[in-house]
Design a protein that fits this description.
single chain; mainly alpha; 9 helices
Length: 227
């Protein structure tokens, strides 16, 4: 591929889908603000049933996707993938999956401007709005991307199932923890899950499962023909 072909390819397979996902995320966020969803009652119910044990457990749960941890883990695992698989594809895929959801989140959360649920917030509220949940989309982007890479290289079906159970469980734990701790509404968490999945699928199609163009081979008769 020439440089121009590379630019066109990534513009169509990564940049364009990211712009579309950002536009849809913004539109859904504004639609949620315009139509009452009744989700505050879910947040109030969870807040009313808080216990010290679940406060502690959900603290660990939300930390699975805290920004410093996700950034550090992404760098470490990307390096490990590069060393183990002896190529850059898996590492680039992981970084693309994690950072694409982060860019979409940052581009849309402030313009949407949704307030946090009307309950006590156990965690400090960052200077972003409630929609979508960046913790949840980052958890999907990292843990599901890692699961996809590992199961692509592992043939043992039972081990594949275990890896995917863990990869899916982590974002769900993060999502429940954010709900419980009063940091997000249910639709914030739901859209965070969908956004993360969209970014993983996008990056997988564009990078992990990309097929390189084969150079056309000259017929044997031409190869044997004297110059």
């Amino acid at each position: 591929m020439t440089r121009a072909e590379h630019v066109k390819y990534y513009a169509l397979t990564i940049l364009l889908p990211m712009l579309l996902m950002a536009g849809v995320t913004f539109g859904v966020g504004k639609l949620i603000l315009a139509w009452p969803t009744g989700e505050a009652e879910v947040s109030r119910t969870l807040a009313a049933d808080r216990t010290p044990l679940w406060n502690t457990l959900t603290d660990y749960g939300t930390s699975l996707s805290d920004t410093p941890y996700i950034v550090a883990l992404t760098v470490i695992v990307a390096i490990v993938f590069r060393l183990v698989y002896k190529r850059r594809r898996e590492s680039i895929f992981l970084v693309a999956a994690v950072w694409s959801q982060s860019l979409i989140f940052l581009a849309t959360t402030t313009p949407v401007g949704r307030h946090r649920p009307p309950v006590q917030h156990i965690d400090p509220a960052p200077p972003t709005s409630s929609f979508p949940s960046g913790h949840v989309s980052a958890a999907v982007g990292f843990y599901c991307a890692v699961a996809l890479v590992l199961t692509t290289h592992i043939r043992n079906r039972a081990l594949q199932v275990v890896i995917w159970v863990l990869g899916v469980a982590a974002p769900l734990i993060v999502g429940f923890s954010r709900l419980y701790r009063g940091m997000h509404f249910l639709t914030d968490v739901t859209w965070g899950l969908l956004l993360g999945v969209g970014c993983v699928v996008m990056a997988a199609r564009a990078i992990l499962y990309r097929r390189e163009k084969q150079q056309p081979q000259r017929p044997i008769s031409e190869l044997a023909r004297p110059a």
